[in-house]
Amino acid sequence: MNLAGTEGFSLSLDFSANPGDNGGGGVSVFTYNNLSAFVDNFGVLEVSVGGQNIQSAQWAIGVNAPTSLEVRIEADKALHVILNGNDIGRIANANVGGPGQLVLGNPTGTEGSITYTSVNARQDANAGQGGGGGNGGDAAVDGDPAPGRVLIHFGTGNDSAEDYYVIDKSDATLNGLGIADADVTTQTNAQTSLTRIEDALVRHAEIRTYLGGLQNRLENTVSNLTIQSENTAASESRISDVDVAQEMQTFIRNQVLTQSAVSMLTQANSMPRMVMSLIF
């Protein structure tokens, strides 16, 4: 796709309203045709064109999370990545065509769309051109997970937008690992392919580590919930036992008092009978 215009063309995001939803690990910030920005599970922002990583930068999380991300063409006709207004790097190998023209890999079509994949957030997006470009308008997230992500919903009586957990299972395919176009026909290409394969092995290990950590957390959570359930049942049993013992104690006390009262009345009535028997 060709996005033409003077220098100043930009794709930008403003997520200052809820930065925590975009600063976590494994969150795809946005995709625009073949251009994408992704924050991995180690807090590294990766910008890619056509599936190839072309820019990486450390992404702060929590209260220090960035509130804006912009990818734009500067006067040098190159693609730049801007975090919070700070240019973090020039993407020298981006395919910039004529003056102010960015080629994203799809030769057909003149329009594109920004697809948000962050869950439970709403940001303003614009895909304008410098000097009077169009505005992409507002985009809202409907809660559907992005490809490569699994949304797990907990509970039966609550809404699907509540009590959910998103797991990034990452893309471990050849395209996702960047080795689909590996070429060993020349020494240079073979060396480049070996480097990509080494990076893919590291990425594969990171994905396995991440999923293993999630599995351990899930098992630990299940174990804790099981223990809590057993403790709750034991506490309920003890409370029931105490209630029964207290009621039995009250019953026995009232029974003793009743029997004592009957005995006293019997003794009280015995004297008049004895007197009457002596008289008659």
UniProtKB/TrEMBL annotation:
Entry's Gene Ontology molecular function annotations: structural molecule activity
Listed GO CC annotations: bacterial-type flagellum
Amino acid composition bias (Gly residues), ranges on this chain: 128-137
The keyword Metal-binding is assigned to this record: no
Predominant localisation class: other
Keyword Glycoprotein tagged: no
Disordered: annotated span: 123-144
InterPro entries: Flagellin, Flagellin_C, Flagellin_C_sub2
Similarity comment text for this entry: Belongs to the bacterial flagellin family.
Places the protein is found: Bacterial flagellum
Protein name, UniProt field: Flagellin
Domain Flagellin C-terminal: start-end pairs: 195-279
Source species: Candidatus Desulfovibrio intestinavium
Keywords tagged on the record: Bacterial flagellum, Cell projection, Cilium, Flagellum
